[in-house]
Amino acid sequence: MTVAGALVEVEIRGAVALVTLNRPAALNALDRALTAELGRVTERLTSAPGLKVVVTRGAGRAFCAGNDLKETATLTPREAEAFATAQGLLLDRWAALPLITLAAVGGVALGGGLVLAASHDLRMAADGARFGLPEITLGWPPAYGIHRLVRLIGEARAREVILSGAPFDATEARRIGLVNRVVAADRLLEEALAWAGELARLPAGGIKATKRVLADIVGPLRGGEPQAFAGCLAGDEAQGRIRSFLEQRQKR
To answer: What is the pLDDT of residues 171-202, one digit of tens each?
Structure first.
C-alpha cells in the first residue's frame, strides 16, 4: 500500500514503511505544513497493522536542510517559540514510536534535519552526506532537540558541533557516533531497505517492549531551546543574517 501526498509519501512494504520527505525543491526544509504532516504520519504508522520498521529518507538532493528560513523570517517571536515547541514534541513522538526507526541520510542533514535523524533509532548515511548545526552562524541557538545530539555523541563533541556551526562529512559522523553505517550514495536506499528487512524479522512483541524500555530510560527531555530561539530570532543580527542568506540563494 502506498499513501502519496504533497509533502510526505508513505509506502508500506510488508512490515517495513518507507517514509519520504517530499519538498525536494526546498531541500525538504521543515516548515509548519511539513511538520504537521509528519505528526499525522506518526499516527498512521502507530496504527498500521503488522508494521515493525520505518525507513525515513528525503526526496531529491537532501535528507532535510533544517527549518525553512524563508518561512522562519516571517514568524513573530511568539509564533517562532510555538513552532519550535511543536517540532520538539514531534521528535518526541517520532522517538517514541513502537517501531524500529532508521534514517537514510543522503545529501545534507542540517539543523532540524540533523536533529530529525538523531530522533531515529538508527542512522545510515551516504558517503557524500553532510551534517551540521549552522544555527549559531545565523545568530540563534538550535531551536529544539539538543539533548538528542548530546546523548548520541557525548557532551564534548556535541558542544563542538553546536558552537562551531561547521559542517562535517559522513566519515566524521560515523567516527563520532552520529551514524551507524556509511554506504555508497547510489546504494543508500537499497542498503537501508535491506537492513530494515533484517530488523523486520525480529518479533513484534520484542520490538515494542524494547522501545518502551528505551523510552523510559531516555524519554522526553527539553531545555529552553524554543524560548532562546524565539528571543534571538527577533534581533537585528539574526534578521540580517536571514536576509543575507535568502539574497544569496536567489542569486544562484
So the answer is: 999 999 999 999 999 999 999 999 999 999 99
Q: Mind listing the pLDDT tens digit for each residue in 13-65?
A: 999 999 999 999 999 999 999 999 999 999 999 999 999 999 999 999 999 99
Domain 2-199 has CATH 3.40.250.10: no
From residue 15, alpha-carbon distances to 88, 157, 159 in Å are 27, 35, 38
Domain boundaries, the chain: 2-199
Stretch 121-129: mean pLDDT: 99
Q: What is the pLDDT of residue 144?
A: 85
Question: Residue 106 — φ and ψ, nearest 5°?
Answer: -120, 150
pTM, two decimals, is 0.88
